[in-house]
Amino acid sequence: MRELKETGEVTEAQGLDELAVLMDGVAASYGLLSRLYLKEPDDETVAALRRMRFPAHTGNEFLDRGYRQIVGYLSRTGAAAVEELRADYSRTFIGGGIDSRSAARLQATTLRRAALPARRHLTQLVKLSARRRAARRATMGAA
Question: What is the pLDDT of residues 97-112, one digit of tens each?
């Protein structure tokens, strides 16, 4: 994870920079997931999904198959994708065949549960960002 400087020494700031880039990707993934849990997909969300690049070979066949299914679905569905995904969202999070009061209660519970891991993750990102800034300041001060 750490890179070598021209002199051959590894710096903590470089390792933190790489970690921060990795965590930015993780944060973007969690952001997308939270968006998918919180609200029905719209044109913008589907467009963002279509712009995403998924790895072809992760070393995990189950994961690779899932990525291929996502890419295949998005490539063969046109404008109908938004309506299909909205229907899936409604069946999954709002419920089919239950009264609106129960559906609203179910959706509120789901939203609260989905928000907890995201809050913990954001707290970790804030701490990492503070450490990264402190390491940069220390590196700049030492120079």
Answer: 555 566 667 667 766 6
pLDDT over 70 at 1, yes or no: no
Phi, psi of 130 (to 5 degrees): -65, -40
Distance of CA 7 to the CA centre of its chain: 37
Closest CA to 131 of 23, 28, 10: 23
Global confidence as pTM: 0.47
* Cα separations in angstroms, 8 against 2, 12, 135, 141, 143: 11, 13, 19, 21, 17
Reply yes or no on whether the pLDDT at 115 is more than 60. yes
> For helices 12-38 and 100-142, what crossing angle results, to 10°?
170
Q: Which of 127, 47, 50, 81 is nearest to 135 (CA)?
A: 127
Contacts of 117 (CB under 8 A, 6+ apart): 30
> Which residues are CB-contacts of 32 (< 8 A; sequence separation ≥ 6)?
48, 49
Confirm if 136 and 12 have CB atoms less than 8 A apart. no
pLDDT of the residue at 89: 83
> 96 is written with which tokens?
């089919």
